[in-house]
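Bug #77: duplicate submission created two jobs. Keeping one. Sequence:
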Amino acid sequence: MIRPTLSINGSSASDLIDPRREAMDHLMDAIEALKQVTPNGRDYICDRERLIADRDTHFDRIAALHTLRNELLDEALHIGNQGRAAA
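Kept job's structure:
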C-alpha cells in the first residue's frame, strides 16, 4: 500500500484522496462493464473446457480490480485518518 505522510510542505489530504476516489469510481465502472461480457456457454458450443478457462480468467480480472479498489480505499482512509489526527 502507498502511504504518504501529510505535512505542511506536502500535498493536502484532499489532493491525495480525491484522485484515489476518482480511480475507485472508474474501477467500479470497469467492473460493471466487465460483468456485461461474462463468458456465456452459448458462445462456447462444444468447448466446455475453453468456457471454464475463460470464465476463470474473467473472474480473476474482476477480482483483481476489486483488490485494487480496496487498496485505494485503504490508502484514502489512511490519509484521511492522518488529517483528522492533525486537526
